[in-house]
Amino acid sequence: LSFLDQEMSDALSYHFWNNGIVIRHNEEYDTIEGVDDGVIVHLKSGKKVKADCLLYANGRTGNTDTLGLENVGIKTDSRGQVAVNAHYQTSCE
């Protein structure tokens, strides 16, 4: 949860874990099989995960690729978000 402060991310992960919610980072699925009482996710690693339900999220990216930010000296990060420093200043001078 890179968009959150580390303390918030740790607290959220802790509460998820205590409520039986498992977050699987950087996993790749092969197939998803619907069954009467939920889903079975077949992972590329060969593992199978059975669950009541499935939430698939692939992250968030900035929608900046067509704005021409490079023409005005504003840099973006690997996720397409405008890069800022600790004071939320961009690279534009």
Question: What is this structure's SSE topology?
Answer:
Elements: H1 6-18, E1 29-35, E2 38-43, E3 48-51
Quickly list its features.
elongated; 3 strands; Class-I_Pyr_Nuc-Dis_Oxidored; FAD/NAD(P)-binding domain; FAD-dependent oxidoreductase; 93 residues; 18% strand; alpha+beta
Task: Walk me through what this model shows.
The protein is an alpha+beta fold. The chain folds into 2 domains: 6-59, FAD/NAD(P)-binding domain (3-Layer(bba) Sandwich), CATH 3.50.50; 60-93, no CATH class. 14% of the residues lie in helices and 18% in strands. The chain has a 3-stranded antiparallel sheet, with no helix packed on it. The longest helix has 13 residues, at 6-18. It is elongated, with a radius of gyration of 19 Å. It starts with 5 loop residues before the first helix and ends in a 42-residue tail after the last strand.
